[in-house]
Amino acid sequence: MSLPEEHVERIWRVVASIPRGRVESYGSIARRAGLPRRARLVGQALRQAPEALGLPWHRVVNAAGRISFPEGSRMHSLQRRLLEEEGVRFRGRAVAREHRDAPPDLDELLWGPPSRPAR
DNA sequence: AGGATGACAGTGT
DNA sequence: AACACTGCCATCC
Questions:
Q1: Is residue A15 part of a domain?
Q2: pLDDT for residue A108 is more than 80
Q3: Does the residue A74 lie in any domain?
Q4: Residue-number span of the structural domain to which A52 is assigned
């Protein structure tokens, strides 16, 4: 089986939509691309992304908020530098919470999205 | 053909 | 917080 070009492009689009100064996890990106539970595909799609696209690949971190390249590797330091350059701060090895995707709160889980029309 | 390998994640301890 | 284990799936020997 190969990774359908269609999937790859949806992933690229989602990554392109991550605003400056914020980060998003592989899993979250996969979900938003309509590929739930397939976080690994995000990494693969990113790996084969042409440089010319100018994707903000550095805004993609793992679920723990940490950079997935090995510590001390070139890619790791590059990613960290790019993030810090756009104002992202770290707490230890993880991106500070203020830059991560907002966790769904209990109210929303129980009551559903606020956009639902009131009776 | 089949096992190892990842730019991962969820759950359990 | 750090492991260990399992699910995941395209790629690469």
A1: yes
A2: no
A3: yes
A4: 5-97
> Domain for residue A55, yes or no?
yes
Q: What is the pLDDT of residue A96?
A: 97
Cα angle, residue A115 at apex, residues A12 and A32 outer, rounded to 5°:
15
Between the CA of A42 and the C1' of C13, what is the distance in angstroms? 23
Give the pLDDT band (50/70/90) at residue A116: very low
The two tokens of residue A89 are 């701060």
Over residues A23-34, mean pLDDT? 98
Nucleotides of chain C touched by protein CB (<7 A)? 1, 7-11
Q: Tell me if A115 is assigned to some domain.
A: no
Task: Name the least confident of A3-7, A30-34, A49-53, A109-113.
Answer: A109-113
Closest by Cα among A107, A80, A101, A114 to A23? A101
Q: Determine which helix (DSSP H) or strand (DSSP E) holds A82, and give its type and residue range.
A: helix A74-85
Total domain count for chain A? 1
Q: Which nucleotides of strand B lie under 7 Å from a protein CB?
A: 6-10
Mean pLDDT of chain A: 90
The CATH number for A43's domain is 1.10.10.10
